[in-house]
């Protein structure tokens, strides 16, 4: 796993195995949950990531993992154009391309962890298949990447003609949260 020293990224690797290297980049639970919240819930501000996650991450851990994800090139940190004192976190192309991995993890969890209470997101992802994946990746590019990069990578119809994959995922997630609170 990556070193836990104040956001520093490990440069010495235990092995050259690609699985080992991947675990060193994203192998702790908090990094994956932060990526999940940015990707699927569009939580892009520190306060949102801190207060709206079900898992209850500590402030120092959140700050450390955000810093590490920036150094790994999975997310970028920039000033919010609407509020100069706030920063906004965005996925990079490297981060967006983690979507298939996260979708497979959701599908596996849906299949083998049936006792999981929050199943709406997994069900929408599985039911949507490759078409939903392509639409969602295009929307992530439009949301997170500079406009010129997003247009080059998007290979689906324009936003106005397309089903809003992110909205469908958020609706499913929030519906499951509402059920859980009852």
Architecture overview:
This protein has 182 residues and is mainly α. It folds into two domains: 1-91, Orthogonal Bundle (Arc Repressor Mutant, subunit A); 92-182. Helix content is 59%, strand content 8%. It contains nine helices and two strands, in the order H-H-H-H-E-E-H-H-H-H-H. It has helices at 18-26, 29-41, 46-51, 59-71, 93-96, 99-112, 120-144, 147-153, 165-181, and strands at residues 75-80, 83-91. Strands 1-2 form a two-stranded antiparallel sheet. Helix 7 crosses helix 8. The N and C termini lie far apart (38 Å).
**Structural class assignment:** mainly alpha
Q: How large, in whole angstroms, is the Cα Rg? A: 17 Å
Identify the quaternary structure here.
Answer: single chain
Q: Give a short account of the largest sheet.
A: 2 strands, antiparallel
Summarize the structure in short.
The protein is mostly helical and 182 residues long. 59% of the residues lie in helices and 8% in strands. The chain has nine helices and two strands.
Please tag this protein with its features:
single chain; 182 residues; mainly alpha; Arc Repressor Mutant, subunit A; two-stranded antiparallel ribbon; 9 helices; 2 strands; 59% helix
Please describe the topology of this protein.
Blueprint: H1 18-26, H2 29-41, H3 46-51, H4 59-71, E1 75-80, E2 83-91, H5 93-96, H6 99-112, H7 120-144, H8 147-153, H9 165-181
Antiparallel strand pairs: 1-2
Helix pairs in contact: 6-7, 7-8, 7-9
């Amino acid at each position: 796993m990556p070193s836990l020293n104040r956001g520093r990224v490990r440069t010495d690797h235990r092995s050259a195995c690609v699985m080992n290297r991947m675990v060193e980049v994203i192998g702790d639970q908090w990094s994956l949950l932060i990526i999940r919240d940015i990707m699927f819930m569009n939580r892009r501000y520190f306060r949102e990531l801190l207060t709206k996650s079900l898992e209850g991450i500590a402030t120092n851990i959140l700050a450390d993992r955000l810093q590490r994800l920036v150094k790994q090139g999975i997310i970028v940190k920039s000033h919010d154009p609407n509020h100069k004192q706030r920063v906004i976190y965005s996925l990079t192309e490297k981060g967006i391309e983690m979507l298939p991995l996260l979708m497979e993890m959701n599908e596996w969890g849906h299949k083998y962890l049936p006792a999981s209470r929050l199943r709406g997101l997994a069900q929408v992802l599985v039911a949507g298949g490759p078409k939903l994946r392509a639409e969602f990746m295009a929307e992530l590019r439009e949301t997170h990447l500079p406009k010129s990069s997003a247009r080059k990578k998007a290979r689906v119809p324009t936003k106005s003609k397309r089903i809003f994959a992110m909205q469908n995922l958020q609706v499913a997630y929030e519906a499951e949260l509402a059920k859980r609170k009852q």
